[in-house]
């Protein structure tokens, strides 16, 4: 996107007046802010009779909604804090960024509906989830190695000597896992808190499948400087995700493409069926997802809840068929929720040997992490210390289903 040129933007806005127009409008300060706030409306259908742009930058845009003749507008759509713009075929994109190039506000106008992920109603009653499977090319530098170390150090919350954890996790050696299924909602979720563990299993010859529920379309980071808009960000992040998977050794990537930030609002049964279908195909011995309550982000918790329910159903199927020994275990990354009391045992994987893989995974998500390299003061010193620790070990809660 480019800095707003007031006269050109006024002309572009005026071109959408006098006819029905599809609108995407949002404000956000991020789900991890101390006091998060935000809203978005997508595919609101409005008819504007006038449009205006005011200010010296950041700018304010207003649409006067068509009303009865002679009675003035029936209402207003007003957006402030706009700094950048871009035109597309039948579309106009306006956005506002803060001093760290994070999206704060967006206004988009289109003559056709904006996409909502996979299909117009991917969770419609009776509709089967559509999952695209992507075979990730093998990175020659990451090949299975016999006898590699890396078995997790078990630590049970009720027993500091680890007996509780060992009871919950009876096969802690990654090389013994049948398959690892990772179910997370966003591109880059596979990197920060779990990337070393994924690389550890892949290096031990464990097949890894990653079911990513969204394309991260609603992320605030668009690159530094911005390299995408709200409509192109999903495709950019999918490309970055493939590179990240290659760095970690994930060969089997599956995309559900639910619209970002709406996972918790989807039909829960539809989500469960999506995860269960992959679980039946992969037949994992270990399933990695977010904790259903302590996931830290609404999409994280919704992904964890759907995955846990799918695992319970899959386990019941296996027991009925006499394959109880194939029932998988669930592991949830502890991450920043280390002090949460969830009543589960914990295991810690030493992953320093795979720190370079984890760094490569993070760097693959350039649109989300480029600001780190350009701005030495961001993120905070505390967050950097956590990241350095995360390059040495990763901890998980363990649940047997």
Number of strands: 17
Instruction: Give the overall form.
Output: elongated
Helix content: 25-40%
Radius of gyration: 23 Å
Strand order of the largest sheet: 9-13-12-11-14-15-17-16-10
Structural class, by secondary structure, is alpha+beta
Uncertain ranges: 155-171
Q: Note the gap between the termini.
A: 48 Å
The helix/strand order is EHEEEEEEEEEHEHHEHEHEHEEHHHE
Verbal overview:
This protein is an alpha+beta fold and about 400 residues long. It folds into 2 domains: about 1-110, Hypothetical protein YojF (Protein Yojf, Chain: A, Distorted Sandwich); about 130-400, Rossmann fold (3-Layer(aba) Sandwich). The chain is built from 10 helices and 17 strands. The strands form 2 sheets. The chain has a 9-stranded mixed sheet, with helices on both faces. Helix 5 (about 235-250) links the parallel strand 12 and strand 13. The longest helix is centred in the C-terminal third of the chain and has 23 residues, at about 300-320. The N and C termini lie far apart (about 50 Å). About 45% of the residues are buried. Residues about 155-170 have low confidence and may be disordered.
Relevant terms:
single chain; 401 residues; alpha+beta; Protein Yojf, Chain: A; Rossmann fold; nine-stranded mixed sheet; eight-stranded antiparallel sheet; 10 helices; 28% helix; 28% strand; elongated
